[in-house]
Amino acid sequence: MTKSKVKQEAVAIIDNRQHAPTMSDVAKLAGVSAMTVSRVMNGDSNVREQTRTRVDAAIAQLNYIPNQAARRLAGLRPIRIGFLYSNPSAGYLSEFLVGLLNQVSPNNIQLVVEKCEADEHDVEQAQRLITNGVDGIILPPPLCDSARLIELIAATGTPAVTVACGQPDPRVGGISIDDYEAAYAMVCHLVALGHHRIGFIIGHPNQSASARRLEGFKAAIAEKNVESAPELITQGMFTYRSGLDAAEALLGLPERPTAIFASNDDMAAAVVSIAHRLGLDVPGDLTVAGFDDTSLATTIWPELTTVRQPIADMAEAAVQLLLQQIRGQRNGTPQAPEHVRIDHTLVRRQSDAAPRLRPRTQFLAKVAP
Q1: Which residues pair with 261 in a beta bridge?
Q2: Which among 318, 312, 311, 306 is positioned nearest to 347, based on CA atoms?
């Protein structure tokens, strides 16, 4: 339709009606359905730009002002989102909540927060959220890897988004970084500094992100042709306590590593603590690297070199992805779950350096019994 014909059509609509312009008037002028006009006005990102332009032009031509009360009743009623979490570190949870809360007011969201123990009543609590009418659910680690939870969500048709899952289930949305590439990049950085004996602390064995980080570590070690030994890899649980135990094991080896890469900042901070207890200088005697870049990374000394996983940004992106699913259901245009990958960053601070060249016999500290 040419601009002149659009103008003529707009004039005809204005002349023929005895009331304020309606959404139907806008739809007729734009040559689209009333549902499409609603989607444009609600900011639906799936509307084609050409269609959006026509609708915007029709709104301007008719000087259409939506009935706010009707909009609230029809599509802008509060959206209730459930956030189910289970014992992440305090720093991780804090940043996650900041990201969620940043999206609450602008999007008319009611956030329902519930804590549960992984594998203990998690399905029952999720079922209660669904029964009580939440429109969607967000699952951070470790619940993002719960097969029972995903089965429940898929069976009930509840929109859901997992965050920081190493292998997101295709039946739900997902926001994640590339854990494999992030770990690979950190090992390459440590090798570039001159480290050839690098210890690694694995994260919780039940979390898929842990496996991906371990795979990235092993791939980089193999590619860079540096020392690979089973004793250089030890199990952690993503907790500070497990990091202490892992650090004691690695630093108690007859030939200790010159660098230790831990799968999260809590365990990396524990490595720094054990190193200090043994009289080792970080980074002069031992380089330490973490993962996540939580607030803990900059509250210990020395500050941690780490992989920045933008947790708050990922939480915000999860809300936006979930909103698209929920609005699609409300508008009768359900969308397939989408998986979005967020960029990670390697952040250098004071805990890394080139290895100090000196005989092993000068290292006399022993791990305390």
Answers
A1: 200, 289
A2: 306
Non-local CB neighbours of 148 within 8 Å, separated by 6+ positions: 122, 123
Q: For residue 38, give the amino acid letter.
A: S
**Coil, strand or helix: which one is 88?**
coil
Residue 247 to residue 144: CA distance in whole angstroms: 28
Q: Which is nearest to 167 in space by CA: 132, 206, 197, 218?
A: 206
Strand pairing category for 173-176 and 198-202: unpaired
* Cβ-contact 139, 162 below 8 angstroms: yes
Please provide residue 53's backbone torsions phi and psi, each rounded to the nearest 5 degrees: -65, -40
Tens-place pLDDT, residues 24-77 = 788 888 888 776 777 777 666 667 888 888 888 888 888 776 654 444 444 457
Structure tokens at 105: 């007011």
Tokens coding 106: 């602008």
Residue 364: what pLDDT?
Answer: 45
Bigger pLDDT: 47 vs 236: 236
Is the pTM higher than 0.90? no
Q: Return the amino acid letter for 298.
A: T
CA atoms of 45 and 117, how far apart (whole Å): 36
The one-letter code for the residue type at 96 is: F
Return the structure tokens found at 270.
């524990």
Tally of CA atoms within 13 A in the half-sphere of 330 that contains its CB: 22
Pick the CATH number of 3-73 from 3.40.50.150, 3.90.1150.10, 1.10.260.40, 1.10.287.130: 1.10.260.40
Cα angle for residues 75, 78, 82 (degrees, 5° grid): 125
78-177+310-343 and 179-309+348-362 agree in CATH topology: yes
**How far, in Å, are 14, 19, 54, 294 from residue 25 at the CA level?**
9, 11, 13, 52
Segment 313-347, tens digit of pLDDT: 999 999 999 999 999 888 888 888 999 999 999 99
DSSP H helical segments within 194-310, as ranges? 208-224, 240-251, 265-277
Q: Which fold does the domain 179-309+348-362 belong to in CATH?
A: Rossmann fold (3.40.50)
